[in-house]
Amino acid sequence: MKVGDVQIYPADPEDRVDGDVYIFTAFQNLPGPMVKDHDEMFAWEDVSRPTYLYVPVPALYNKTGRFYVGIGVANKAASNCVRFEPPPGISEEDYCLVRDFDLVVYARVLNKGCYFYQGSWNRFTNVNTTSFGGDSYVECSTHHLTTFSVGISNPEIDDGMAYIYITEVREQIITATILVLLIGIHMSIVIIIGFHCEVLEFDKGWLYDMKDNTIGDLYHYVVMVETGYRMCATTDSKIFITLYGTDADEVARELSSARVVKNSDVFVWGTSARFLLKAPWSLGDIRFVRVWVDNTGQGDLESWYCNRIVVKDLHTGSIYRFPIHDWFGANMSDGATERLAAVDDEIILKNDVLSIHILAETISYIAMYTGGGLRTRQRVSRPWYACSVLLGQLIVCVVNWAIVSCEDIVRPNADAVYSLSVELEDVLIAMLLSIIVLPFTSLIPYLFTKSPCDEEIEEIDLVKERNEQEKLPSYWPPIVRKLLSLVFTWLPIGLWIFALTVTGKLSGDHAAAFTQRYLIQLALWILITEPIKGIIAAYWILTHHPSHAVSCELDEAVLPLQYGKELRPPPEGLRNEVVGTTDSDIIQLTQNKEKKTR
């Protein structure tokens, strides 16, 4: 990057010099022919024509004094030459400088006012610079220290000229580059851990076929169990459930599957597990559930904290919610291992929207660490949540760089990135940047939810093999998922390399502004904008898809639900008397609920 130009030309183009002519330059020192005595050395190929010395930007940092120029002629055949230690590339025999020679030259600075090179515009500019001159002082004021530029002038400087030197040496800082580097490293680790967890948790989000189902039972329910966000909420104990309906009961069904190796892989804190329960007939409207554990888990895995249980009748579409919010097991709370819960007929949308189970899916920085608590983790895994966050943050870095590059920024403490010298403009720009992230953390998970995962594709193929005319819900073809995977894998890598490159060229003031704005943006995104986006997304999901956490159209399409309509009703007055279930418990629970209501 060449920003300055010194022209040296002979007084008489007809003058000739025997030997090789060299030009030496030094800042605030008289230049000499030895390497230690000059800053730069140039060869003047043709003394009859002008030569130009270009001064790059780094050579001008913190330098407001004089640059001295010296000329030497090397001629080993001359009788008055003196040998010096040569610089690299020149033999000692040829580096014999003439003590006295006759050559008259002039030097002039190609300069016009105070200019600096604006890299983002790829041209010289004097925007936001000031200049004035006089008999004693020549000063330029700008955030770029540039003493040479374009134009032609011959400034006349007398021997008594005084200089005002910089008293504060401000080195370039690389905080912006380090910040971008850390973003890439951190998110890469999160993505790698996410892929590792997906291998260990390959069945998360599946609809488990309960192992005590009977082939002849054709009435289908989905039982969704939420394990709460509590320490030691995970359990390895066996869990049983009894459903009490208006027409019949389904008693002592174990929430397990042939796919489940151990319960602590399914009933994990902060997640939901779904089970397909088959019954010989419709139970009617389900009014109560009884849940208990057998305390076979060891240590911390003995007890279990249940948030709620949701049951969906796949034939009628009815959804029954049973709030639990309590511990099961002898080691926690009151030590009870069995609890009875009544259906909650009053749906409070606010409580569902603010449930951490759905917010863990719609708030991306939670989902990328936990995988989300609901069924969609089968389609949108942890790595894709992490990729959405990484892409959004890299876009923010690029936009942040573009903004600071076009601004004239002077910070009183540019090296103190974490100082309190934050302006209102920084906060407003940071707020804008925190909003820019949201489309990426919303759109990418949404795109992946539109395309079935590999396990769902296998189920679709099996259904089509049985009946090619079977109507299935619309979905994007598998090739779209593969293309999305390629795009959202390589695009962040390219943006990361680009962001590393451009932030490394920022000056100290601009790098400080970049870093401060990004850190403010990150805090605003974590604390304000992303949670608000998560709440809005949860509200939209629950209002458009009330059974989002329980089942989707594809789950129901691959099941033989049509046979459930032809089942005979249960025998009149059917009531099972198992595991100590009595009507008095249900009556007492109803009375307690009515007392709380009053």
UniProtKB/TrEMBL annotation:
Keywords: Membrane, Transmembrane, Transmembrane helix. Gene3D superfamilies: PLAT/LH2 domain. GO terms for cellular component: membrane. SMART domains: LH2. SUPFAM superfamilies: Lipase/lipooxygenase domain (PLAT/LH2 domain). GO terms for biological process: detection of mechanical stimulus. The chain crosses the membrane at residues 173-195, 384-403, 427-448, 483-502, 522-542. InterPro entries: PLAT/LH2_dom, PLAT/LH2_dom_sf, Polycystin. Pfam families: PLAT (PF01477). One of its GO terms (molecular function) is calcium channel activity. This is PLAT domain-containing protein.
